[in-house]
């Protein structure tokens, strides 16, 4: 089973359980029903905010640990100059 299938299966089960508890078809153990009625509608927003925070943290960490690649920079400049020279030989004005 591919990873996407596992994630979809787990997400489907969690959404089904959430909807069953949201509509009070399955009681939440050890929680007063009035408390669960106040907390359960907020859970999707809490998950969305948590996912956004995690995504921003991962993006920031990736930027913080980004390494420069001087070899790739020199190779890219060489390819750009080669492309410009090729276009000049074909009569295209570059620069």
- What is the CA-CA span between the terminal residues? 53 Å
Largest sheet features: none
Strand content: under 5%
Number of helices: 4
Low-confidence segments, given as residue ranges, are none
Report Rg: 27 Å
Shape label: elongated
Q: Secondary-structure element sequence?
A: HHHH
Roughly how much helix do the residues carry, as a percent range? over 70%
Write structural notes for this entry.
With 95 residues, the chain is an all-alpha fold. The protein has four helices and no strands. The model has no long low-confidence stretch (mean pLDDT 93).
Please outline the helices and strands.
Blueprint: H1 3-22, H2 33-39, H3 43-64, H4 70-89
Based on the model shown, name its key terms.
single chain; 95 residues; mainly alpha; 73% helix; elongated
Short summary of the structure?
By secondary structure, the protein is mainly α.
